[in-house]
């Protein structure tokens, strides 16, 4: 058997042994990259989810305001006057109690947050008309901008 010729790498002295031992587990950089990707996807999903929740609360507000308006229409039909009151609708206020006592509603709906600027308010000084105010978090309701809204009969 003869002498084997050396490859150019072997002749230059820069030849390094290459081990082909099996790798077990992941390298730290691989774990960091995967963790970063999962974090980014999670944060985008969380932000998107919060937007959907705000839109759902606004849709609920619109349904509840319509429910209040129907109850007030029933009330005025039977009593020939709207409840005379002014202030936030709390479930224990004059308007709420009048609507429940009259059988117009089993329970008065409250804003999903029901705190700060997110409350329903009612105003009727003479009982001939009324105004309900409420606040939308988004502009997702067609024809209604984000912010303070008012409805009348």
Describe this structure in words.
The protein is of the alpha+beta class. 42% of the residues lie in helices and 12% in strands. It is built from three helices and four strands. It has a four-stranded antiparallel sheet, with helices on one face. β2 and β3 (131-136) form a beta hairpin.
In brief:
This protein has three helices and four strands. The model has no long low-confidence stretch (mean pLDDT 87).
Task: Give, in spatial order, the strands making up the sheet with the most strands.
Answer: 1-2-3-4
The share of residues in extended strands comes to 5-15%
Instruction: Provide the structure class.
Output: alpha+beta
What integer is the average pLDDT?
Answer: 87
What does the overall shape look like? rod-shaped
Q: N-to-C terminal Cα separation, in Å?
A: 107 Å
Helix content: 40-55%
So how many helices? 3
Radius of gyration: 34 Å
Q: Unreliable stretches, pLDDT < 50, 5 or more residues?
A: none
Number of strands: 4
Q: Describe the biggest sheet?
A: 4 strands, antiparallel
Order of helices and strands: HHEHEEE
């Amino acid at each position: 058997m003869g002498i084997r010729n050396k490859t150019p790498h072997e002749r230059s002295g820069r030849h390094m042994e290459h081990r082909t031992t099996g790798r077990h587990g992941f390298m730290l950089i691989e774990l960091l990259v995967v963790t970063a990707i999962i974090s980014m996807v999670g944060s985008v999903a969380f932000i998107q989810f919060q937007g959907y929740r705000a839109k759902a609360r606004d849709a609920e507000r619109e349904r509840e305001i319509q429910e209040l308006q129907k109850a007030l229409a029933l009330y005025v039909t039977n009593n020939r006057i709207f409840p005379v009151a002014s202030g936030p609708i709390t479930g224990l206020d004059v308007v709420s109690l009048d609507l429940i006592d009259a059988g117009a509603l089993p329970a008065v709906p409250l804003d999903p947050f029901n705190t700060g600027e997110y409350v329903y308010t009612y105003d009727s000084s003479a009982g001939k008309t009324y105004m309900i105010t409420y606040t939308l978090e988004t502009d997702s309701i067609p024809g209604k901008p984000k912010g303070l809204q008012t409805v009348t009969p």
